[in-house]
């Protein structure tokens, strides 16, 4: 019952949490969508009072709350001292309603919002608006991995990155988004879209990337990173070994200041 779960987060338990070293609370797969938005916001508030730094509410069918409900939870988290909110696997691609304009929120410290595995490619334009909302609440790290974003099309993905301008977002995780089918020119455009943003870390791992033009295009890719201030580029678990006759000495020679994984 909802009342029972609310009781779990009463003042006494908050006080107990506050005297422990517990900093991460996992509520994964607990059917939280059956609770009201007000109850879930109350849980977030209690976690803040208890000193929790990472809250995991993944795999709870939170798409059933609608965009208003989800926005209330995310905004409450943004106001708190919690560094990470994990809402992956909540089928947000099926969520109803329009993206809410939150207004500006003064957030505290680094903010990591995990939206992994949420079928977000089905949102298209709404996802771009959602990034703008993240800018208003001070998100610094955005995890959009495992969302099949390639199905959004090249133009929408570029707009997605460009929407980070004016935000505090410093790191974007695009792991496993089927980007291999979009071509070499797209990859360069994706990186160049980071110009004018605060993004210094980009994760493109597990996208089966290979470069059809070989060594010369890999050099172009790296130079694009340098030009926009990318300091950390994750290309792990791709197919760069298929690059034709790579001159790795030449490649690494121009990589000063970039951290590759």
SS summary, helix count:
9
Order of helices and strands, N to C? HHEHEHEEHEHEHEHEHE
What percent of residues are in strands? 5-15%
Uncertain ranges: none
Give a structural overview.
The protein has helices at 2-8, 11-18, 37-50, 66-79, 125-136, 154-162, 184-192, 215-228, 248-253, and strands at 24-26, 54-56, 84-86, 112-114, 141-143, 171-173, 201-203, 232-234, 259-260. With 261 residues, it is an alpha/beta fold. It has a nine-stranded parallel β-sheet with strand order 1-2-3-4-5-6-7-8-9, with no helix packed on it. α2 (11-18) runs parallel beside α3 (37-50), α5 packs parallel to α6 and α7 packs parallel to α8 (215-228). The longest helix has 14 residues, at 37-50.
Produce the secondary structure layout.
Elements: H1 2-8, H2 11-18, E1 24-26, H3 37-50, E2 54-56, H4 66-79, E3 84-86, E4 112-114, H5 125-136, E5 141-143, H6 154-162, E6 171-173, H7 184-192, E7 201-203, H8 215-228, E8 232-234, H9 248-253, E9 259-260
Parallel strand pairs: 1-2, 2-3, 3-4, 4-5, 5-6, 6-7, 7-8, 8-9
